[in-house]
Amino acid sequence: MSHSLKFTLSAIALTGALFSSASQADIIISGTRIIYDANKKDVSVRLENKGKSPLLVQNWIDLGNDNAEPGSIKAPFAATPPVSRIEPKRGQSIKIMYTATESLPKDRESVFWFNVLEVPPKANTNQEENKNLLQLAFRTRIKLFYRPTGLPGAPAEAAKQLKWQVASEQGHAVLRADNPTPYYVSFNSATYTSGGKRYDVDATMVAPFGKAAFTVKGLQNASAGKL
Question: Distance between CA 147 and CA 157 in Å, rounded?
């Protein structure tokens, strides 16, 4: 039986409505990820309002828990301005600065998340109509990678160095990834082909010098072996 693995690498940008998934966010972040090189004083991120109405925008950085309240997060970064109003078809630059008193690991990347929450202005309706008015707030998260200076190898080559194994685990086929590099490897999509049939893989990210197991959707068993 033949086996093959195909995947697309990308920083994952998660965009969703807090109250509805049918609409789309109007605030666009320039880029799908942020790289903060340790030798930089700060980095800038550009936000653009593609909508037709002014928007109040709040931004913050979290440690990976997307349910944490912004005020309770102790991230080693500050994003300024934390709140801004962006007019239609205009933009706003957000400056991100490293503020920690203790240094992050110097032998590998560290990952955080940059959040943007947009809230449209209240509609000009009377008080009675406001009771039945649903205001949508949209939140977008992209990864922020802190990259120490002097890391060996090239980030673009990290994916090629992953070591893969396919195995059966509790009645499901899983792909196990071993990352020997100091860089995070993220996946936008991944597929696994077994016996001429292609299966989607629930792949997300593998940490530096770390291991991860991803479920092969719809495939119950697989022979263990390197790919």
Answer: 15
CA distance 212 to 177: 5
DSSP state at residue 170: T
Q: What residue has token string 């707030």?
A: 137
Q: What are the pLDDT digits (tens) for 148-172? A: 999 999 999 999 999 999 888 888 8
How many other C-beta atoms are found inside a 10 Å radius of the C-beta of residue 110?
19
Q: How much is the pTM?
A: 0.81
- Dist CA 57 CA 127 (whole Å): 25
How far is the C-alpha of 185 from the C-alpha of 206, rounded, in Å?
Answer: 5
> 111: which residues sit within 8 A by CB, 6+ positions away?
64, 143, 144, 145, 146, 184, 205, 207
Domains detected in the chain: 11-147 (2.60.40.10), 156-226 (2.60.40.10)
Could you give the CA distance from residue 57 to residue 168 in angstroms, rounded to a whole number? 46
Residue 136 C-alpha from the chain's centroid: 22
Q: Give the bridge partners for 83, in sequence order.
A: 58
Residue 35 pairs with which residues in a beta bridge?
Answer: 145
Alpha-carbon gap, residue 191 to 224, rounded angstroms = 17
Q: Which of 15-19, 145-149, 176-180, 192-196 has the lowest mean pLDDT?
A: 15-19
What are the backbone dihedrals phi and psi of residue 188, each rounded to the nearest 5 degrees, phi first? -85, -40
